[in-house]
Write a structure and sequence with these properties.
This protein is of the alpha+beta class and 70 residues long. It has 2 helices and 5 strands, in the order E-H-E-E-E-H-E. The longest helix has 9 residues, at 21-29.
């Protein structure tokens, strides 16, 4: 399931990162790598605020679509 469809407050595990090399590298630099647990904190406009490894990050809808969860 893409991260875009994740429910707020539910922890999910990243299965893989799709997309072009540049997009994958950017998401990995933010800590979004396979086997990482993420939780959607809020959704607003075209952005999602995530809790990842004790930090909060905001990413846009186009990158959110590249993160695949289980």
């Amino acid at each position: 399931m893409p991260l875009l469809l994740a429910e707020i407050g539910v922890p999910y595990t990243i299965v893989r990162i799709a997309g072009k090399e540049k997009e994958r590298h950017h998401l990995e630099s933010l800590g979004l790598v396979p086997d990482t647990v993420v939780t959607v904190v809020s959704k607003f406009n075209n952005y999602i605020l995530l809790s990842v490894k004790g930090s909060r990050i905001g990413i846009g809808e186009e990158l959110v679509k590249k993160v695949i969860l289980k």
